[in-house]
């Protein structure tokens, strides 16, 4: 059987993978097999943490609102009943920057 030289295609693919893993440490940045495993793991965690970031920010906003208002769930319920469409991010910013405004909103919703 004749000898087959692999050519440049595999080398190009490996260098692309190595560029992705250039910031990894140890064998994770040097050995092709561990680079591919580490790349798969990194992309999995990146995908997972994009959803987790949304979850964490929402809980942060809820915590900020809950510090100042009588009852968070009642506030959200009153907002829906009063047809005031203000999302939790904006409410949290109001809670940080202008507490009196949030108090006045909650008092008007109570009455």
TrEMBL record:
The record, for SUPFAM superfamilies, names: Ribosomal protein L20 (SSF74731)
Gene3D superfamilies attached here?
Answer: 6.10.160.10, Ribosomal protein L20
GO biological process, alphabetically ordered = translation
**GO CC list:** ribonucleoprotein complex; ribosome
Q: Which InterPro entries match?
A: Ribosomal_bL20, Ribosomal_protein_bL20_C
What keyword terms does UniProt attach to this protein?
Ribonucleoprotein, Ribosomal protein, RNA-binding, rRNA-binding
Instruction: Offer an example of a GO molecular function term for this protein.
Output: rRNA binding
Give the matching Pfam families.
Ribosomal_L20
Q: What does this protein do?
A: Binds directly to 23S ribosomal RNA and is necessary for the in vitro assembly process of the 50S ribosomal subunit. It is not involved in the protein synthesizing functions of that subunit.
Into which family does the record put it?
Answer: Belongs to the bacterial ribosomal protein bL20 family.
Q: Which HAMAP family match?
A: Ribosomal_bL20
This chain belongs to which protein, by name? 50S ribosomal protein L20
Organism in which the protein naturally occurs = Zostera marina (Eelgrass)
């Amino acid at each position: 059987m004749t000898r087959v030289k692999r050519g440049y295609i595999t080398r190009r693919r490996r260098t692309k993978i190595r560029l992705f893993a250039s910031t990894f440490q140890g064998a994770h940045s040097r050995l092709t097999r561990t680079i591919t495993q580490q790349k798969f793991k990194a992309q999995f965690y990146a995908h997972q943490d994009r959803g987790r970031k949304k979850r964490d920010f929402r809980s942060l906003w809820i915590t900020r609102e809950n510090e100042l208002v009588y009852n968070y769930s009642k506030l959200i319920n009153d907002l829906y009943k009063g047809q005031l469409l203000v999302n939790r991010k904006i409410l949290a910013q109001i809670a940080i920057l202008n507490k009196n405004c949030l108090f006045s909103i909650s008092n008007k919703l109570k009455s």
